[in-house]
Amino acid sequence: MIVPLTPLDFLERARSLFAELEAVVDGERRFTYGSFVARCHALASALGPLDGARVAYLSPNTVELLEAYYGVLLAGGVLVPLNIRLAEAELQAILDDCSASVLFVHPSTAQSLVAPRTITIGPEYDALLAAHDGAFVDRVVDDENAVCELFYTSGTTGMPKGAMLTHRNLATHAVDSALTMACTHRDVVLHTIPLFHVNGWGTPHWVTLLGGRHVMLPRFDPFEVLRLIEAEGVTRLHLVPTMATSLLVSEALRGHDYSSLVQVTVGGSPPGPQLLAELEDAFGCEVICGYGLTEAAPQVTKALTKRSHDGLPVEEQRARRATTGLPNVGVSVRLGDDGEILVRSNHVMAGYWNQPEATAEVLVDDGRWLRTGDIATVDGEGYLRIVDRKKDLVISGGENVSSVEVEQALCAHPAVLEAAVVGEPDARWGEVPRAFVTLRPGAAVPLADELRAFVAGRLAKFKVPRRIDVVGDLPKGGSGKVLKNELRRLP
Question: pLDDT above 90 covers what percent of the chain?
Answer without folding.
Answer: 83
